[in-house]
Amino acid sequence: MVRAIATTAEYNDLIQSGKKVIVGFTASWCGPCKVVAPKFEELSEKYPDIEFVKVDIDKLRDVAHRAGVTSMPTFQTYYNGLKSSQFMGASKAGLEGLVEDFAKI
Fold first, then answer.
1. Which of 1, 6, 52, 67 gives the lowest tally of CB atoms within 10 Å of its CB?
2. What total of structural domains would you count in the chain?
3. In what order do the strands lie in the sheet with 74-79?
4. Does this model's pTM top 0.70?
């Protein structure tokens, strides 16, 4: 299940938790984000050992800015507090490849 991050503190705590985390940066007005959202949800159920979360860039601009998000959707992987990879775009195959590679770490 994909969890929505509501605060900067919640985001920071999760990234620093030591867990494997995939963050999807999105916005309510982003059409491509809506296209890829079902695949992100599906992958969250397929990989229960990874924490899947989404950040609305309009609600948490500081988080998106600090993460270097310049387009949407953007997906970033974090492990032990460090960003390990990133994928930008609404390609379902590209997103799946990112998650599959991250799951092997």
1. 1
2. 1
3. 3-4, 51-56, 20-26, 74-79, 82-88
4. yes
